[in-house]
Amino acid sequence: MMAFWWPIIVLAFAYAICRFLCSFPQMFHPLMSMPPTIPPRGRTQQSDRKVQCYEPATMKYLGYFPALTPAEVKERVAQARKAQKIWARSSFKQRRQFLRILLKYILKHQELICEVSSRDTGKTMVDASLGEIMTTCEKITWLLSEGEKWLKPEYRSSGRSMLHKISKVEFHPLGVIGAIVSWNYPFHNIFNPMLAAVFSGNGVVSEHASFSGCFYFRIIQAALAAVGAPEIWLSFAETGEALVSSVDKIIFVGSPGVGKMIMTKASETLIPVTLELGGKDAFIVCEDVDIPHVAQVAVRAALQSSGQNCAGAERFYVHRDICTSFVNQVAKIVKSISAGPPLAARYDMGDICLQEHSEKLQHLVDDAVDKGAEIVARGSFGHLGEGAVDQFFPPTVLINVNHTMTLMQEETFGPIMPIMKFSTDEEVVKLANDSRYGLGCSVFWGCQRRAKEIASQIHCGVAAVNDFASSYMCQSLPFGGVKDSGFGRFAGVEGLRACCLVKSVVEDRWWPYIKTKIPKTIQYPVAENGFEFQESLVEALYGLNIWDRLRALVNVLKIISEQNPVASSKRNA
What we know:
Layout: H1 2-27, E1 46-47, E2 50-54, E3 61-66, H2 70-87, H3 92-108, H4 110-121, H5 125-151, E4 154-156, E5 165-173, E6 176-180, H6 186-199, E7 203-207, H7 212-227, E8 233-235, H8 240-244, E9 249-253, H9 256-266, E10 273-276, E11 281-285, H10 291-304, E12 313-319, H11 323-335, E13 338-339, H12 357-370, E14 374-378, E15 380-381, E16 396-399, E17 416-422, H13 425-433, E18 437-438, E19 440-444, H14 448-457, E20 462-465, E21 482-483, E22 486-487, H15 492-497, E23 500-508, H16 530-542, H17 546-572
Parallel strand pairs: 6-7, 6-9, 7-8, 9-10, 11-12, 11-19, 12-17, 13-15, 16-17, 19-20
Antiparallel strand pairs: 1-2, 2-3, 4-5, 5-23, 10-22, 14-16, 18-21
C-alpha cells in the first residue's frame, strides 16, 4: 500500500515547493504605491539607520533598506560561515538544482526584474534586458554546462623525478566571500559574484547599494532555501570596512579610489581581492569598415557608458579617411535619439542615475569646447512629465578633441561621444594606451588580421574585434582590467576558480608497492660522496645529451651499489 502512496506524496511535495517559488514575487513585490517625496540635493539622507532610496528619473520615494552596524555585519558573516560548512559538502547536483530554480524564475519574470532595475537606475527596459537579464542567464547556463568540470580535480604531469607520483590540483571553497557591488547593474552585479561563489561551495555576504537589491536578494534566498543552501546576507555600504575585515575574500566593483581603500583594509588580514574598477575604453574605427553598421554600434557603446550603465566606450578614434562620413552618420543617429522616462518604451535612453552627475557631464563638455572641441550633434528630450528632475543628459557628439581635455582622460560615465582622428596603426595604438585605465577596447576593420594586431597591442583586459562588449556575453571568458581598472577576474574558469582555495596534491601512484625512499648516500649522516651522487642524479634526470644522461645514471647506480655493502657490513658488525 505504501508503494502506491509514496510517489503521490513526493509529487505533492514537489508541487507545493513549485507553488511557493511561484508565489514569492508577489509576496515581496517592491513596486507598490510610493509618495512623491523629493530629497534635498546632495547626499541621500539617512535616519534611524535606514537608507532612503529614490527613483532617479523623478526622485520619488522608493523605500528604504536597513543600514547595519559593523557588529551586525560581523554577526551575519559568522552565521554565513556556519551555514557554509554545511553547503561546502553539497553535491554538484544540488548546486545545479539551485541554478535551475533561479533560471526558471528569471525567464518567467523578465519584465518584473527589468522594471525594478529601471525604476532604481534609470535605464530603459531594453537596456535592462541586455545588461541584466541576458548576461545573468548566460552565466547560469555556462555554470550548468561547465561549472562542475572546472571544479573537479585537475591532473597534472609529475615531471621526471616524480614519475612514481600522481600530481593534481584540487579546488576547495574559500569559506565566506564578501561582495561589495555597485548600483549601476543592481541585478547582475548581485548575481554575478553570488553565482560563482555559491556554485563553488562558498557562503556569500553581499553588500549592495540599491533599493532593488532588497528585492533581488529575496529571489536568491527563496531559491537557496529550496535546496538547503547557506543564507546570503546583505548590508549597507557604510559597513564595508567591517565586511572586508570579516570574510575570506573580497570582490569589489566600484571606483579606483574606493578600490585602494578596500586593498588597504584587506591587507590587514591578507585576504585575496578582486577589483573591477573604472574604464575609459577605446573604440577604434579603421578606414574600410561598413560605416552605417559601425556607427550604430558606436552610438550604443556610448550610451552604454551613460550614468545608468557603464561598461561602455568613452573614447572614439576614427581613421581620418572616413572620419567625416562616420561623424555624419553618427550625428544622424544621435539626433534621432530621445531621452525620457525609462519605463516608457518609446524612448531610447533613460536618466542619469547619479544625483547632480548631469552637471559634471556638462562641465566636461564645456571644458572640451573651451579647448577647441566642437559639438556636432545632441539628442533630444521627450516628454519628461511634471515630476521629472534634472537627471537627464542628452547624447552628445564632439569632434576636434585631443588628450589635453579632461573629457579624454577621466571616466565620463555619461552618453558623450568624443571623436578623434588618427592616421596610422602605430598612432592609434599609442592614443588608446594613453590612459590610466585598461578595462577594454573594440577594434573595427575590414581586415580582421589587422584588427587583431591592433587589439593585441592595446594594454587592457578585454578586447572585441569587429564588435563591442561581446566578450562579456561569452561567460567562458574572464572579465577584468589592468592599471586603474583593477585586477583579478570575474567569469570564466579564472573567475570561478578565484572563489576557491587552490590546493596542490601529490600522492603515490603505485602505493604501497613503490614508495619514496631517501638514498642511503644522502641520509644523515651524509656520506662523503653525497654531493657526487646528487650531481650525477641531476645530470641523469635533466641532461641535454642522452649519452651524458646514461653515463650519469651508471655513476648513480655505482654509488648506490657501493654504499649498500658498506651499510650491510656496519649492521653485521
